[in-house]
Amino acid sequence: MPDIKTPTTRWTLNGQEVENTSGMTILEAASEHGVEIPCFCYHPGLSIAGNCRICMVESNRSPKPVISCSERIADGLEIETESEVAVDARNSVMEFQLINHPLDCPVCDKSGECVLQDHSYSHGPDRSRFIEDKNIRHTKELGPTISIWGNRCIVCTRCTRFCDEISGTSELCIVERGDRSVVDVFPGIPIDNQLAGNTVDICPVGALISHDFKFEARVWNMERKDSICGGCSRGCNIEVETLDGFVKRLMPRENQDVNDWWMCDEGRYGWRHLYSDDRVLEARGPSGPLDSSRSITAFIEILDNSPRVAFLIDPFLTCEELHLVHALAASSSDSLVGGWLPEQGAAAEFPAGFKISADKHPNRNGAEQVFGHQVFGEDASHLQRALDDGSIETIVAFCGGPDPDGPGQEWSAALVKASTRILFSVLEGNWLDGAALVFPATAPLEKEGTWVSEDDRLQRTRSCWKPGETPFPGELVLLQSLQSALGTRSRSLSAAGIFRELSEVCAPFAGHNHSDIGSSGLLLSDRPAGVGAGGGA
Amino acid sequence: MAVTLSFSPSTMKQYEWLLTRYPTRRAALLPTLRLAESEFGEIGVPEMRYVADLMEIPPAFVFGVVTFYTHYRRAGTGKYHIQVCSTLSCALRGSEDVVTRITERLGIVPGETTDCGLFSLSKVECLGSCDTAPMLQMNDDYHEDLSIDDVDQLIEQLRESAKGGSN
User: Fold this and answer.
1) Which residues of B touch A175 (CB under 8 A)?
2) Interface mutation target, options A174, A179, A193, chain B, most CBs of B under 10 Å
3) Residue A395 resides in a domain
């Protein structure tokens, strides 16, 4: 906030006079000037513990080195991070940390993204002087999703602080003392909270191991894409990590406006349906599978022979896909569009402010903006009535959710009343029986485009698929092919291109494009975050 | 074991008095655990749970505190708890020999209890008696300036008094 005069402190960092906002710690302030001080126990989202000592620096105000994670800057303070005293202190701490560490990096899941490994490389000794026996600490399950490999633990207490401060569940503690101390749970009370997976992310070593990711992949072989969790309408920022195009792990990505550094376990582990045996992977008609050109031809034939076409959209579709559906619906006269919503789940709010929404879908808000009205409210009831009175013969329905029941019992029963059904589905299910055409639908992690979260934040999600190796044409490609065949589109575009079209015709998106959404998204409206959540239905 | 633990009214009174002496409830944990130890005889999982619920603090925190200190009588400890100080001064003055001798005589290593349930052996951190190193604490008593003979004698004495006590 440049308009408010914030008090600043002048201090000296490695011989250079610098200025920072008063009250910052040395570690934070130094990082603003590009000086990275190593740390294990420090985490910007947690309270300061100061127990690992690796961040020690030399100070003109102390005869001994000080820990930069808790010491604050002050006028006239002179800090050396690379002096002999500082380097010595760091190297000694590193040697000490490694005394009982097993150095089992070749079999450790953290290897490659391990803070201990990195610091050992840059600050540690290349051999150990420790000739005594290393002590053994427990390896055991702490809960249904997490195990502790005690020998690797450096007792930084990040995980226990997380459970005390962020999830507020306090299941973890440090038991025993000195070199025997290690993370544990109270006997009979496992760590089983909705945010538990984050403790594994913030573990600076491989002590906490996620059962879901254990021995799944070496982290340096994986590719990472910035994406958005489609599990609920919060729109937590995530990183999707893939190996050969297959998702192996989801990690939260920092966004102070949405999810801080965290994500919930429901979102984190909720991707196995991508590789379910029940996935719909190719288009098919009543007589069997159709290749993509024949499926398009069949689709168009149906559209041409239908006096009235209705569309049932879902809140998983991206704004770009919805724009194409909108255009398709607009091109045929007398069409109807409604939307279905999955059943509400449980909402949750945690002491540190992290929220889980009851709306288990990512883009209700976006759909309402693209269509400009209550597509899940009034329009949906209108569509349902039209189906009930038999005035709709042809319907195109989408289900990008991981539910084999598609749009749910009620809508499935209503859909049957349309004699010709074109259905997009992620999973096989009874609701696909008797469909004129079935198309594979992309699941949230496979979509390329934008969603609007419950806070009206427009965010970009990216497909986990390897470019050029898509198992089937997603809705974005297929709907454009349809338009081309109908003669309403001259060339097919990427998601960014479709967004540009959308921004030209739809007021809430006007003036925006994919590149200015950035990595943390942008607010479509000025209303404060959290107010009017749920899209104002 | 669904035994419901509870402080007796007089212990509860002491507990309430304790709370008035500390700025926060959590700060009164150590003396409260002492009360629990004298009330229930030992500190095991049910006792820790009781104290946690009573004080409204997370059970895991109580677990961490109890295991940090060696001074609480943990569940399953033998009648005679021999705690050999093995911090610096005692270590330099031969605490390891004391431990080895006890292990030879009793057939248990630190952390174990004899099958008869009479003896438990622990290596503990500094007991604040460095001037009389090496030393050990047997239940509530200090035995200082130990020689190997002293250790033998102590064990004999304890065996005798156990016999005397049971007859």
Assistant:
1) 63-64, 67-68
2) A174
3) yes
Backbone phi, psi, residue A266, to 5°: -60, -45
How many separate domains does chain A show?
3
Residue that the structure tokens 């024949």 belong to: A294
The last residue of one of the domains, among A97, A121, A152, is A97
Average pLDDT over residues A291-305: 92
Residue from the list A175, A187, A189 with its beta carbon closest to the beta carbon of B64: A175
Task: Tally A–B CB contacts below 8 A.
Answer: 46
Distance CA A199, CA A46 (A): 12
Residues of B in contact with A171 (CB under 8 A): 58, 60
Range of the domain at A93: 8-97
Chain A stretch 111-150, residues whose beta carbon is closer than 8 A to a beta carbon of chain B? none
Residues A241 and A161 in one domain: yes
Q: Are A76 and A189 found together in one domain?
A: no
Q: Do A176 and B68 touch (CB under 8 A)?
A: yes
Q: Does A186 touch chain B (CB under 8 A)?
A: yes
Contact in structure between A484 and A326 (CB atoms under 8 Å):
no
Do both A464 and A379 map to the same domain?
Answer: yes
Residue A216: the pLDDT is 94
Q: Judge if A37 and A182 occupy the same domain.
A: no
A111 pLDDT band, cuts 50/70/90, is very high
Strand partners, A279: A427
Rounded CA-CA distance A261/A254 in Å is 4
> DSSP string covering A20-82, please?
EETT-BHHHHHHHTT-PPP-SS--TTS-----S-TTEEEETT-SS-EETTTPBP-TT-EEESS
Prediction ipTM score: 0.86
Examine the domain organization and report whether A269 and A279 are in the same domain. no
Q: Contact A325/A480 with Cβ under 8 angstroms?
A: no
- Answer whether residue A142 is part of any domain: yes
pLDDT band at B2 (very low <50, low <70, confident <90, very high): low
Task: Say yes or no to pLDDT of A532 above 80.
Answer: no
Same domain, A438 and A479: yes
In-domain check, residue A160: yes
Q: Do A171 and B48 touch (CB under 8 A)?
A: no
Residue A529 confidence (pLDDT):
45
Give the pLDDT of residue A380. 92
Walk me through the domains of chain B, giving residue ranges and CATH numbers.
Answer: 9-68 (1.10.10), 80-166 (3.40.30.10)
Residues A288 and A269 in one domain: no
**What distance in Å separates residue A192's CA from the closest CA in chain B?**
13
Whether residue A409 lies inside any domain: the answer is yes
Q: What is the pLDDT of residues A404-433, one digit of tens each?
A: 889 999 999 999 999 999 999 999 999 999
Residue A170 distance to chain B (closest CA, Å): 6
Q: Say whether both A320 and A468 belong to one domain.
A: yes
Q: Per residue in A23-44, is it b (16+ CB within 10 Å) or e — as a string? A: ebbbbbbbbeeebebbbbbbbe
Mean local confidence (pLDDT), A239-245: 93
Q: What is the mean pLDDT of residues B140-165?
A: 92
Question: CA A96 to CA A94: how far, in whole Å?
Answer: 5
CATH number of the domain residue A243 falls in: 3.30.70.20
A337 DSSP β-pair partners? A311
- Identify the band that residue A239 occupies on the pLDDT scale cut at 50, 70 and 90: very high
Mean pLDDT of A282-305: 93
